[in-house]
Amino acid sequence: MMKSPLSALLSRPAARYGLASIAAFGLDLVLTMALRLGAHFSLTLSAAIAFVVTGLIFYFIHEFWTFRHDSSTVSSGRLVRNFTSLGAAFCVRVGIIGALELIRAPGPLLALVYFGLAAAASLTVNFLINKYWVFTRT
């Protein structure tokens, strides 16, 4: 039986990572802006909190869907490696936003630009570390 184009696409970890990243980005953005506008936190603090919450949720999505394997299960080794990856991506994300905030305090539109730039950089770092170190199967 031939796979549908969607099934063929979703059989690739990079495609699943892309879809998971879109969902994570949406959650991350909504949480960041809610904290910034609702709690009046700085963009840097809002992004840091949202990143941690989203990262914890998406470990499980990556474990059981994005990088799924017949042996997928909660693994303390992968969990530690995932937190290490998240730490690197967190530093990239928060570092970029913090540096940009130091250059110029953002209004609402510029905050979205800062967030988008930092998210693109941190997602790239996180994907590469997850694909080649955290969820690699030997």
Note the topology:
Elements: H1 5-10, H2 13-38, H3 43-66, H4 76-103, H5 108-134
Low-confidence residue ranges: none
Number of helices: 5
How much strand?
A: under 5%
Helical content, roughly? over 70%
Shape: elongated
End-to-end separation: 30 Å
Count of DSSP E strands? Answer: 0
Main β-sheet: number of strands, strand sense, barrel status? none
Would you tell me the structural class of the helices and strands?
A: mainly alpha
Using the CA coordinates, give the radius of gyration: 16 Å
Give the averaged pLDDT, no decimals: 88
Order of helices and strands: HHHHH
What does this structure look like?
By secondary structure, this protein is mainly alpha-helical. Helices cover 80% and strands 0% of the residues.
Keywords for this structure?
single chain; elongated; 5 helices; mainly alpha; 138 residues; 0% strand
Can you describe this structure in just a few lines?
Helix content is 80%, strand content 0%. With 138 residues, it is mostly helical.
